[in-house]
Amino acid sequence: MxxxxxxxxxxxxxxxxxxxxxxxxxxxxxxxxxxxxxxNIDLANKPEWFLQLSPTGRVPALVVKDDNAxxxxxxxxxxxxxxxxxxxxxxxxxxxxxxxxSMRAWISYSETLIGLQYKLMLATQSDDFADKLTQxxxxxxxxxxxxxxxxxxxxxxxxxxxxVAPVFTRLKWLPHVTLQLQQEAKTQxxxxxxxxxxxxxxxxxxxxxxxxxxxxxxxVNYFKQRNSFALK
Length: 232
Known about the structure:
Layout: H1 2-7, E1 12-15, H2 20-32, E2 37-40, H3 48-53, E3 61-65, E4 71-75, H4 77-87, H5 97-122, H6 126-140, H7 159-169, H8 175-185, H9 189-202, H10 205-208, H11 215-224
């Protein structure tokens, strides 16, 4: 498998089917390239070839060719996405140094949201779920997208959108969140802007195409096996 990956003519994304960090990079691949290969692995039984590729042993890992056609492995989704952004098409991380730094800060913050959402899905009791739901919603509402616009910064898709979109993809199993935002949106402009962004980004083509056909089943099975209160 390692030899096959390193000889591939397109970028190869090594993936775990429900990993939100993998999805962040899959979104950029869909937005920028579309021609790439995706290989899913079992994180509970990582193949030896993967451990040879990735020094961290975490997904995603992206294998690409350099200018001399030598295979190079990139790891960490934020790094992978900045490479894809710079190497292919019009840069999505654009603007002044301050504007780009601000976007990187929000990209980093998205990792907090991903972690809180994962812990929320792992809650098995109603009290614990309620506490973690409050924490997650509070963190989610700190995002301040452009009011009335489809993307975080306005009318153009950005790396911030790619970083946060996996959180929105998983909200279908947390209807409590969108119901609360819908109620608040009637009187609170920030909640209305956030809800608009969630709805638009969740249906953006690169986001919808970034998950496999088995994603819903894989996600539900993973958390049902862990007795998730959200899925009861």
